[in-house]
Amino acid sequence: MLDIQKIREDFPILSRQVYGKPLVYLDNAATSQTPKCVVDKIAESYYMSNANVHRGVHFLSQEATNIMEQSRRHIQRYINARHPHEIIFTRGTTESINLVASSFGEAFLQPGDEVIISEMEHHANIVPWQLLETRKGIRIQVIPITPAGELDMEVFRGLFSPKTKLVSITYVSNVLGTINPVKDIIDTAHRHEVPVLIDGAQAIPHLKVDVQALDADFFVFSAHKVYGPTGFGVLYGKEQWLDRMPPYQGGGEMIAHVSFEKTTFNELPFKFEAGTPDYIGASAFSTALSYVEKIGIENIAAHENELTQYATQRMQEIPGMRIFGTARQKGAVISFLIGNSHPYDVGMLIDKMGVAVRTGHHCAQPLMHALGIEATARASFAIYNTREEVDIFIESLKRAAAMLQ
Ligand code: PMP
């Protein structure tokens, strides 16, 4: 049994009040809160072991380099990558996808080639491919969703052609909560000899990830959604792909030798890490992963699933409640509308009661279009949320619904 009250004590922000009410933070799919151990790690790094990595022979620089490389190995173990150099540090999911689009695009995509994505993608997994449509004349093929908010796998299987060069798909939808059958997607794509990028932004906080078991070619995620720092993220890529991909950005660290006649590039992972990396972010993220490991990702998922089910069930008490996304496999995300009320109004009213939910298109406008709506309100859960908070959420929704009628 998890002691959630004790876990809550690790997150000082949870004892805050907003508008004189205890904070009920249900916007975890946007960013999770940060435990004290992670913030302490950042402070300790700046206080005690800050020095630029790689370039120095002095003690502190070597120490900082060692800590950064230990963090890389921790992330490698955490997602079960084969090699530490398959872990590339980025600013987050968005930059990781842009890196692949730019670099894989340059190496492997020709005009007329096709990239398969889905209707439920975050803009971060749409727009980089659209930029390639403009720059390289590639084409995007889109897997539609079913009324339950699952990928239409029949259509997906029919989308492959000799022009298909990449599948890029989200593991868990940030709007619908759908957990996609990514193993099946990867196996299908591999039968066509097509590599697959998995957007793991919403999976990493909730699911055990094993990139080798999945056989993912690329797997990307952000630290800030799994109790880590903002501005830090990961691109996992199989060595066989990364080796053949050109650098994304040029600068220091990513070179082996520079002259005006000819510059040669550093080996993996440094080829993709131009400039001073966020070594403090890396070690803080490693601390966040240790925090998750201490609790156990399965325990986290079980707790979040229980809250999601309880909230889904209690939300039926509200007249006019519409929930978007009823997939059989679902993460800890509930998107909803109440009658004809605008989700912004619902969000603003419950905010005054201390309850933080997200409202808007959730960076998934094509999905909103497919659902025939403009926006939703979205509640999403993390390890520190409680049933009592769900009760406050429901009561606040009831009050908001009554006011908006
Ligand atoms: N993909 C998905 C599925 C997401 O939920 C998010 C964050 N909302 C992103 C990509 C982008 O993540 P980031 O803003 O951390 O780069």
Annotation keywords:
405 residues; alpha/beta; seven-stranded mixed sheet; four-stranded antiparallel sheet; 40% helix; globular; binds 4'-deoxy-4'-aminopyridoxal-5'-phosphate
Short note summarizing the structure:
This protein is α/β, with parallel strands linked by helices and 405 residues long. It has helices at 4-9, 36-48, 59-79, 93-108, 127-136, 153-158, 182-191, 211-214, 239-242, 279-295, 297-315, 343-352, 365-371, 387-404, and strands at residues 17-18, 21-22, 24-25, 87-90, 114-118, 139-143, 164-170, 196-199, 218-222, 233-237, 255-257, 264-265, 321-324, 333-338, 355-356, 358-360, 376-380.
Textual characterization of the structure:
The model has no long low-confidence stretch (mean pLDDT 97). The protein has a 7-stranded mixed sheet with strand order 4-10-9-8-7-5-6, with helices on both faces. The protein is α/β, with parallel strands linked by helices. It is 40% helix and 16% strand. It has helices at residues 4-9, 36-48, 59-79, 93-108, 127-136, 153-158, 182-191, 211-214, 239-242, 279-295, 297-315, 343-352, 365-371, 387-404, and strands at 17-18, 21-22, 24-25, 87-90, 114-118, 139-143, 164-170, 196-199, 218-222, 233-237, 255-257, 264-265, 321-324, 333-338, 355-356, 358-360, 376-380. The chain is built from 14 helices and 17 strands. The protein starts with a helix and ends with a helix. The protein binds 4'-deoxy-4'-aminopyridoxal-5'-phosphate.
